[in-house]
Design a protein that fits this description.
It contains 13 helices and 10 strands. With 368 residues, it is α+β, with helices and mostly antiparallel strands. The protein has 3 domains: 82 residues, no CATH class; 183 residues, Ribonuclease H-like superfamily/Ribonuclease H (Nucleotidyltransferase, domain 5); 65 residues, no CATH class. A hairpin with a 5-residue loop joins β7 and β8. The longest helix has 25 residues.
Length: 368
């Protein structure tokens, strides 16, 4: 970490103005964010509390034994300004470029996969989009009763309530507890169609309703992606997108282009059956990438020219290492259900989590 942060000094200096009130040092912000991930600290407030008395955390972050810690709100605001997606990627690249780490990486064999990151949004927040600018979603609560036009007395408000696929009108006085309207009222899901084209979460509009496989429940989530080298299972690139059926293949192309732009060296890419699509395989071949993708039983885009080689079987075995990175990020790290909102913030958190996973692997590998 020391060497990686030193290599990013020029980047840190460009982020902060030369005058005004001094902010939290970027090195300390990054170290504190990594401590929160590595030790499964659930919130910034708890992190500040543990920094008060935990000498191990103080040593890693760079606080002296009697130095005061930051107010949680101040730390969070400064962290959100610093930990952008680009800064998280630069930190990951700096760690992987270290003289002790670079020999552990493979330059020719890679694997790719994706995982769902549950959004910090309730399914009740998934409501129809407004039909026009300024309109409320159809199932929003009606405005407060403003009385008669002449300002005397009150009138009953008529509310449209959707239930069982139909629409019925009832007055405010007729509304029962079975169809509450309010901040967290009961909702009837039967007979209604939910789609990302017509609905959006009012809590986190960037989250998408997605179902990973048949028989699995749909949930509001993002989709995280990682490109892994096959020698020791380090994540060399990380990305996060909206969740949809083709996001994994698009992200794979983007990560390959970003990892080694303009390269003509022949490499291999392992992946599961979800990547076995004719268009994706054709794109890989034009990029000098040999597709070591798990072949579908029927209608596979691969043939014996690829699957007959011994290297194909090795890639199929190695590609499963990427699940360790996702499993670590969801049990130790915070990506099982993110507490952040917005695509950019969740993407930065996902990338930093993959960087923390690489750090966690280093002691055992370097000692060997």
């Amino acid at each position: 970490m020391d060497a990686s942060l030193v290599s990013l000094v020029a980047e840190f200096e460009a982020l902060y103005a030369g005058e005004g009130r001094p902010s939290i040092a970027p090195e300390r912000l990054l170290r504190a964010a990594l401590v929160q991930i590595l030790f499964s600290i659930r919130s910034e407030r708890q992190l500040m509390e543990q920094l008060e008395y935990n000498l191990l955390f103080r040593w890693f972050v760079g606080l002296s034994i009697d130095e005061s810690v930051w107010v949680p709100t101040v730390f969070t605001k400064n962290r959100d300004r610093l930990l952008t997606t680009e800064m998280s990627r630069k930190l990951m690249a700096a760690i992987l470029a270290h003289a002790d780490v670079a020999p552990l990486l493979s330059d020719d064999h890679f694997s790719v996969d994706g995982t769902l990151v549950e959004a910090w949004a309730s399914f009740k927040s998934f409501k129809p989009k407004a039909s026009a600018a300024g309109d409320r979603p159809p199932d929003d609560p009606p405005p407060p009763d403003a009385g008669n036009a002449d300002g005397t007395g009150t009138t009953e408000t008529t509310t449209k309530i959707e239930a069982g696929g139909g629409t019925s009108e009832m007055t405010k006085a007729d509304t029962t507890c079975e169809t509450e309207i309010g901040r967290n009222g009961e909702r009837d899901w039967r007979g209604q169609t939910w789609a990302n084209a017509t609905h959006a979460s009012v809590t986190d509009p960037d989250a998408r309703l997605y179902r990973k496989a048949r028989g699995r429940p749909a949930q509001l989530c993002y989709m995280g992606h990682a490109l892994m080298e096959n020698r020791n299972g380090f994540a060399v690139r990380a990305h996060l997108t909206h969740a949809d059926g083709t996001a994994e293949r698009r992200a794979a192309i983007d990560m390959l282009n970003a990892h080694d732009p303009g390269s003509t060296r022949q490499i291999t890419l392992g992946a599961d059956k979800g990547y076995d699509a004719a268009e994706f395989v054709a794109d890989l071949r034009t990029m000098c990438v040999t597709p070591h993708i798990a072949a579908k039983t029927k209608g596979s885009a691969l043939d014996a020219r690829t699957t007959r080689h011994a290297g194909y079987a090795v890639s199929q075995k190695k590609r499963k290492l990427i699940e360790e990175a996702f499993g670590w990020g969801k049990t130790i790290g915070p990506i099982a259900k993110t507490m952040l909102r917005g695509l950019d913030r969740v993407r930065a958190q996902f990338t930093l989590t993959m960087a923390a996973y690489n750090l966690a692997k280093l002691p055992r590998l370097i000692a060997a």
